[in-house]
Amino acid sequence: MKRISLVKEAHNLIKDRLHPGDIVIDATVGNGHDTLFLVEQVMPAGKVYGFDIQQAALDSARSKCGQLSHPECLTLIHASHALMAEKIPDEHHSKISAVMFNLGYLPGGDKSIITRTDSTLPALNSASQLLAAGGVITILAYPGHVGGDRETDQVKHWCDQLDAKQFRVSTIYSLEHKDSAPRLFTVSKMR
Ligand code: SAM
Q1: What number is the average pLDDT over the span 89-101?
Q2: Helix (H, G, I), strand (E, B) or coil at 26
Q3: Whose CA is nearest to atom 7 of ligand 1?
Q4: Residue 109's pLDDT is what?
């Protein structure tokens, strides 16, 4: 069976919708692959806010983005994404074009530090409110690790309860509907 890169799927989907000057959020910076991708889409006038609870992740992302011609486009925030609404300046509220979540643990890092439902769900609520009309949230979820199964179920449940008049949800599976297969939820806010 053909394996799909869900990271690539998320990037392609977001790339189609972003423009230079947009304001976006990387809710889980990790090693900074998504952060760098986002900065490349919105620079020179746009802004990327990146959240992670691990300083090591933010350091890794900062060094990955070190060669950027417009480093001022990136603001890294050492805090939980659950605090997104209070950390993002008020003038950007309802103007965020994209929010990326890549759940789980930092590859190559401490596998006991994982995203958790009790902060992921408040962060998703904030993201849905901060989003501009026409904006998108991508959530890459991994049910194959301990804790990830419950978190993925809860994310699906969160998506299911969204107001269908306001949001459109789609799901892409990396392997045909296997329970442990990673999946990409995409939440689009109607215009
Ligand atoms: N997007 C990253 C990349 O491109 O390299 C990969 C992200 S990694 C799978 C998940 C990250 O989420 C880890 O670095 C972890 O520290 C971070 N994390 C866990 N709980 C968090 C929280 N409450 N708020 C923000 N980040 C969190």
Answers
A1: 98
A2: strand
A3: 30
A4: 87
Q: Which of 40, 45, 13, 39 is nearest to 26 (CA)?
A: 39
Dihedral sign of CA atoms 152, 155, 160, 166 in order: negative
Whether the CB-CB separation of 43 and 68 falls below 8 Å is answered with yes
Give all strands (DSSP E) within 30-123, no chain letters: 47-52, 74-78, 96-102
Q: Which residues contact 96 (CB under 8 A, 6 or more apart)?
A: 23, 24, 25, 88, 127, 130, 131, 132, 135
Range 59-80 average pLDDT = 93
Structural domains of the chain, ranges and CATH numbers in brackets: 6-189 (3.40.50.150)
Dig out the tokens for 62 from the structure: 């900062």
Structure tokens at 188: 């689009």
Query: Residue for token digits 């190559």?
Result: 108
Among 7, 14, 52, residue to substitute to test ligand 1 (most atoms within 8 Å of Cβ)? 52
Q: How far is ligand 1, taken at its centre, from the CA of residue 32, in Å?
A: 9
Other Cβ atoms within 10 Å of 157 Cβ, number:
11
Ligand 1 center to 48 CA (angstroms)? 15
- Whole-model pTM? 0.96
162 alpha carbon – ligand 1 mean position (Å): 24
Beta carbons of 13 and 5 less than 8 angstroms apart = no
